[in-house]
Structures are given as structure tokens and as C-alpha cells.
Specification:
Elements (H helix, E strand, L loop, with lengths): L1 H32 L2 E2 L5 E2 L5 H4 L5 H32 L2 H12 L6 H12 L4 H7 L11 H25 L3 H9 L4 H12 L1 H16 L3 H6 L7 H11 L3 H36 L5
Antiparallel strand pairs: 1-2
């Protein structure tokens, strides 16, 4: 009984923080989503599904978000995994700290400054001008979905690298040594040992990056040039410009539900893959 009370007291601060900063705001947003827009802007009490019926009006924002956020997550994963593997397995201990610092260095600079740097690189005087000089033709990169994709992959890559690196760093190297002693080819050891055991890091990094990308606002606004809208841009417009809090809340609730479904399906698929691979390991070692 005493231990239960002590545990409750220790968990109370975190629980209060969780309720105050996450649960209560979500409840408010949910309540607002069933309301109406006040004639002078803001929220008017009510109970209607009209706001949810108007969600197709923001279809373009949902389409861009649900296309570029998964693509950005996959692209970041494809770049981050080899980098994390190299840092965790191939690099000598004396260089690991230095290289890890280099990975995180971009986070020392504001995302605003980094985005403006990409505006120049992808603009008419940057990479397109270089390609034209080389005789490869004219290219328009800025204010396109490609520019937004480049920006989000660059901006969120470290968040994908570190969870995978930690998972690979904790990998029991004796399993790889045992597989090598049994004559298992390196590629098979990677697919049946390294990759499945690093899935917790892959899952953590992918979910973290995907969730942040679904709410991204700054990168689409700058590199998309007002032509590539995310749901985050739509929410800023609804809450701050048109002051339609009810419709903005409905858009936010819809985004949260879609995000939860995608994350749940992805988590289930990753766990199935990891479980199936581990079960196959019985025949390997």
C-alpha cells in the first residue's frame, strides 16, 4: 500500500503535466470542432457536424501532407540508416563523438536560416543555374513539392539518425560473430540479425519524424512559396487569418485521427516484420 502511494506521488507531476498540456487542449479542440464560427471570428458554441462536412474544402492540404510526409519519412530513413550503421558499426571509437557532433551541428542553427539557405540553393541563381551552365537544360526547383521534400528531409534527418544509431550501438556483436563462424554471408546476417534488432530504432525515428512532418508549417511556407500547402499552413490560415476556429479544430481533429491510424498500421507492420525475422533466426544460429 505504501509503495502504491509513493508510486502515485512520483507519477503525479508528470500526470498533471500530461493532462494540462496534452489531454485538456485536445478536449478543447474536439469541443470547438462541433461548434460554429462567430460572426466576428472565433468560436460560437453549438453542436453541428457542418465543420467535418466542409473538410473536402481543404483536400489539397491533406493530400500534400499525406503524400510528402510519408515520402519525407521514407527518404530520411533511407539516408539515415546507412549513416547510422556506419557510425555505430564501422567507425572507430575515437572518431564516433566527432562524427555524431557533425550530424547534430545543423540543429545549432535556426530552421529559418537553414530554409533560407535552401531557397538560394534551389532558386534561379543556385543549382538550376549550375545545371543550365552544364547544358542540362532549364530546371525549376524552388516552390515545388521537390523543394519541400528536400527541405523536410534535410531538416529532420538527425531525428532519424540518432534512434537508429542507439539501436545499432546496443546490438550484441556476438550474434554477428556467431553467424560469421557458421558461414552465413554478411548480407544474410544483416537481413536476419542486424535489421530486425534495429527495428525499435527505425520505428522510433520514423514515428517521431512522421508526426512532426504532419504538423510542419515553416518549410512548406518558405520552400513551397505558397503553392505547396500542408495542413499546418491551413491551420495557421484558419486560426489566425480567417479566424474560423471551429473549422480549424475540425481540420486538426481529422489530421490527428489520420495520423493515429497511419502510425498504428506502421507500428503493427514493423513489429510483424521484426517478429518474423527473429523467428527465422532460429534456423540461422
Amino acid at each position: 500500500m505504501a509503495q502504491s502511494r509513493i508510486r502515485a506521488l512520483l507519477l503525479a507531476p508528470a500526470g498533471i503535466w500530461y493532462l494540462a498540456l496534452l489531454v485538456f487542449p485536445l478536449i478543447v479542440v474536439l469541443i470547438f470542432s462541433f461548434g460554429e464560427r462567430n460572426p466576428i471570428g472565433g468560436y460560437a458554441p453549438g453542436f453541428t457536424f457542418e465543420q467535418y462536412a466542409n473538410l473536402p474544402a481543404r483536400f489539397a492540404a491533406f493530400r500534400n501532407t499525406m503524400t510528402l510526409a510519408p515520402l519525407g519519412t521514407i527518404a530520411a530513413l533511407l539516408i539515415a540508416y546507412p549513416l547510422a550503421y556506419y557510425l555505430a558499426v564501422k567507425v572507430s571509437p575515437r572518431w564516433k563523438t566527432t562524427l555524431l557532433i557533425l550530424v547534430i551541428v545543423p540543429f545549432w542553427t535556426s530552421i529559418l536560416i537553414r530554409s533560407y539557405a535552401w531557397i538560394y540553393l534551389l532558386g534561379g541563381n543556385g543549382i538550376p543555374a549550375l545545371l543550365e551552365t552544364l547544358g542540362l537544360g532549364e530546371f525549376r526547383l524552388i516552390n515545388t513539392p521537390f523543394a519541400v521534400l528536400v527541405g523536410i528531409v534535410y531538416g529532420y534527418l538527425p531525428l532519424m539518425v540518432f534512434p537508429i544509431y542507439v539501436a545499432l550501438e546496443r546490438l550484441d556483436k556476438s550474434l554477428l560473430e556467431a553467424a560469421a563462424d557458421l558461414g552465413t554471408p554478411p548480407w544474410r546476417s544483416f537481413l536476419q540479425i542486424t535489421l530486425p534488432l534495429s527495428m525499435p530504432g527505425v520505428l522510433t525515428g520514423s514515428v517521431l519524424v512522421f508526426i512532426l512532418l504532419t504538423g510542419e508549417y515553416l518549410i512548406p511556407a518558405l520552400l513551397g512559396g505558397g503553392k505547396v500547402f500542408f495542413v499546418g499552413n491551413a491551420l495557421v490560415d484558419l486560426f489566425l487569418q480567417s479566424r474560423n476556429w471551429a473549422f480549424g479544430s475540425a481540420v486538426a481533429v481529422a489530421l490527428i485521427l489520420i495520423m493515429l491510424v497511419i502510425v498504428a498500421l506502421y507500428t503493427r507492420a514493423i513489429k510483424r516484420f521484426a517478429y518474423g525475422a527473429r523467428r527465422d533466426d532460429a534456423g540461422l544460429i
